[in-house]
Amino acid sequence: MAAFAERWSTLSDLMDRGQRHPDMTIGVPEDAAELAPLLKARAKIMGSWAKDDSLWDESPPSDS
């Protein structure tokens, strides 16, 4: 999840600057100004979830 958050953050920064990522796109270039802040917000939320240990259960699955 942290890796996705970082990738989305990087992509949104590039979109804000009108640049393209060499390997990934979201939407069409004409919509970058509208999509970049949405992607940045989602990346921030996802990054905070990835860092929140209370959201991750480390116990092994039970045998049901």
Number of domains: 1
Question: How far apart lie the N and C ends?
Answer: 27 Å
Count of alpha/pi helices:
2
The topology string of helices and strands comes to HH
Question: Roughly what percent helix?
Answer: 40-55%
Q: What is the count of β-strands? A: 0
**Overall 3D geometry?**
elongated
Q: State which percent range the strand residues make up.
A: under 5%
Largest sheet: none
Average per-residue pLDDT, rounded, comes to: 90
Radius of gyration: 15 Å
- Structural category is mainly alpha
Q: Which regions have little confidence, pLDDT < 50, spanning 5+ residues?
A: none
Describe the protein in words.
This protein is mainly α. It has one domain. The chain has 2 helices and no strands. Helix 1 runs antiparallel to helix 2. It is elongated and about 50 Å long. The two termini are 27 Å apart. The model has no long low-confidence stretch (mean pLDDT 90).
